[in-house]
Specification:
Blueprint: H1 8-12, E1 17-23, H2 28-40, E2 45-49, E3 69-72, H3 75-81, E4 87-91, E5 98-99, E6 108-113, H4 122-127, E7 130-133, H5 142-155
Parallel strand pairs: 1-2, 1-6, 2-3, 4-6, 4-7, 5-7
Amino acid sequence: MSESRSEPQALVHAPGYCAIGIEHTKSSHNVGTLWRSAHILGASFIFTVGRRYSSQVSDTACAWKRIPLFNFRNLDDLWQHIPLDCRVVGIELDERAMPLEEHVHWPRAAYLLGAEDHGLTNEARRRCHDLLRLPGEYSMNVAVAGSIVLYDRAVRGWRPRAGGRVV
């Protein structure tokens, strides 16, 4: 799953980007809320896997005008189009998952969340480069979970700068 990294602090200052998406989402409201959080917290794009959505009423900041939404048909489609050297990081309550507070964020990462009622599929869990879990024993709202991951990345030093570069 995870590659060892000898100097995590060096990665914090490397140029990079992040994205966040939901596999088989059930609620368009959650997509809109996550889109708004992604815009506020510096994500480069958002995406769905298995379900298509466009702009949502819960996106009151009109994030769709600022960062793109990509809709992938399935996991194969996502893996065929994920940017070069981008790590797909699953967010899931899974015994194999690393606690978020122990994770060093990859410079180029796409965070993948599961459906509101079932989480990530077993195939997605197997294919992700890393699995992370949030604190707690119970599942939380998918838009809230995604917002927490993006916030964690932002407060650890991944801040957007002028020109779209992240340091």
